[in-house]
Design goal:
eight-stranded mixed beta sheet, binds flavin-adenine dinucleotide, nine-stranded mixed beta sheet, 19 strands, alpha+beta
């Protein structure tokens, strides 16, 4: 007889793989379908967002949730976390106030202390007293005189390296260094893929597109859904839709309508050998979508940098944000964006947009002028449920029995969403109650750093990026 799977997961992005890995950890079988050659191959992520400090406009509640969720994910995938701090500043031309930034950071320190009180293993962002440090103009003048540190060991040393490169006369003071870490998607993808391949509890089907879903819940069968691919029909009891910005495709198949936004964005890869010494991530706040939108410079190994510029000439795109309509469950991008998603970028556009990004950062980091194109952009589309484009904390919904739809906006929400889905599957008695649930995943822990290094490098190359992007700036022991 044809096998019936307890759980069928469609979409092997960060959300789908975390659900499959958590189920496997508790001995529950699933089948996971991913259209691409490897898992975690959708839109990129490079910031952990442990505190939401890259978003001056979001609520304190969202910042706290992001901090908690980021810590949980960092504990699951420590080998993908780049422990370098983030420089946060406000240009004099911008409306944001440094006092507000400072108040929010103080609030986050208290929240972080609370998380450590709950579980000492949550202390992954260093000591709460050093979660952030503020620097006055006088501090900056002094630090700029110090030598460049090859391996900075304190927030002062990181700031010393950074401030020599930054035109700080353009910035309000104080400026801040915060323990907001980087996050390496190639390393997370490698660890997840290795763990999923090794466990017998997940049937991982890469290169497999789900064409449609058939609801057979009213047909008195031993299962609830038929998942149809080009070759075969798979029978499952519980359906998880983790298709990212394509969740609407599955809903269309099930005639379920819901409001959603989808957004296309890109970050650019530059090479700049003339910046000497390790630097933190550099953030220059500005109003998103205006010509002065936030500028972000993310350091990688071997003189590679990634740039975000929240203007429509760089990271954002005209018509890049699309809303669902009453008769269009899965929103569609225009032809130019759809082409990029399905066939990649034209060489000329890579050059134009990367050079725009370099010029944007050069306003604050003059030496970055000598940077050149370092590779294709990291790009993709993400979903935002509902109709508020400023929302940064994702959720999950349960539109009907035996069906969960993951709607994460930040990769850090993946474990929280997985926990909610697993709880629901137990409530519906599709799987037995899990006793002794821990915060660890032993399948992931069994994967060695050496294995991750190797596969992460291969994934970067396979996807057309320099191998250096698969390495951490701060090498882990
Ligand atoms: C430029 C950019 C920068 C970003 N930076 C960050 C960041 O720094 N930090 C952060 O936390 N988040 C960031 N994000 C958001 C983050 O990328 C997403 O939140 C996250 O990747 C969503 O994960 P997901 O698993 O829900 O969806 P996805 O990663 O989109 O995964 C969905 C998967 O489903 C597969 N799929 C779809 N349809 C089918 C089908 N019919 N059959 C089989 N498979 C299917 C797709 O191939 C895809 O692999 C960024 C997004 C963008 C666009």
């Amino acid at each position: 007889m044809e096998k019936i799977y307890n759980i069928g997961i469609v979409g092997g992005g960060v959300s789908g793989v975390v659900i499959a890995l958590e189920l496997a950890e508790y001995g529950i079988e699933s089948i996971l379908f991913e259209n691409q050659k490897s898992v975690v191959n959708g839109p990129p992520f490079c910031h952990l967002h442990a505190g939401g400090n890259l978003y001056p406009d979001i609520s304190d509640v969202q910042c706290k949730v992001l901090m908690k969720q980021s810590i949980d994910m960092a504990r699951l995938f420590p080998n993908s976390i780049d422990e370098r701090p983030t420089f946060i500043s406000i240009p004099k031309s911008e409306k944001y106030e440094v006092d507000k930034i400072k108040n929010r950071l103080d609030m986050l320190v208290e929240h972080y202390k609370g998380l450590i009180d709950e579980d000492p293993a949550n202390e992954i962002l260093g000591s709460p007293n050093e979660y952030y440090k503020s620097f006055t103009k006088e501090n900056l003048i002094e630090l700029a005189k110090q030598p460049t540190f090859k391996q900075p060991n304190s927030l002062n040393e990181w700031m010393s390296n950074a401030i020599k490169l930054i035109d700080y006369e353009k910035l309000k003071t104080p400026v801040f260094l915060v323990q907001e870490y980087g996050w390496n998607l190639f390393r997370l993808g490698a660890q997840a893929q290795l763990a999923l391949t090794k466990t017998k509890k997940c049937n991982l089907k890469i290169n497999t597109k789900v064409k449609s879903i058939k609801d057979v819940r009213n047909q008195n069968l031993d299962y609830n859904w038929e998942i149809c691919t080009a070759e075969k029909v798979y029978k499952v009891n519980y359906l998880v839709n983790s298709c990212g910005f394509k969740t609407g495709d599955m809903d269309e198949s099930l005639h379920l309508n819901t409001e959603r936004l989808i957004e296309f964005k890109a970050a650019y890869i530059a090479k700049c050998p003339s910046l000497s010494g390790l630097i933190p991530e550099l953030v220059f706040h500005g109003e998103r979508g205006t010509p002065n939108g936030i500028a972000q410079l993310t350091p990688y190994c071997e003189d590679y940098y990634q740039i975000h510029g929240m203007t429509t000439d760089i990271t954002l795109f005209k018509d890049g944000l699309v809303q669902s309509k009453v008769n269009e469950i899965q929103p569609e991008f225009n032809e130019a964006i759809s082409q990029k998603l399905s066939h990649g970028w034209h060489k000329d556009e890579i050059k134009i947009r990367t050079e725009n990004a370099i010029a944007f950062v050069t306003k604050f980091v003059p030496k970055f002028e000598s940077a050149t194109v370092g590779g294709p952009p990291l790009f993709g589309a993400q979903q935002i449920h509902g109709d508020d484009p400023k929302l940064r904390v994702g959720e999950v919904s349960f539109p009907s029995t035996s069906y969960a739809r993951s709607e994460i906006i930040k990769a850090s929400s993946a474990l929280a969403v997985s926990n909610k889905i697993i709880k629901k599957i137990q409530e519906e008695e599709i799987i037995p109650l899990i006793h002794n649930k821990t915060n660890r995943n032993f399948l992931l822990e069994r994967i060695s750093k050496k294995e991750i290094d190797k596969l992460a490098g291969e994934l970067a190359i396979q996807r057309g990026y320099p191998k250096a992007l698969s390495k951490l700036v701060i090498e882990r022991e």
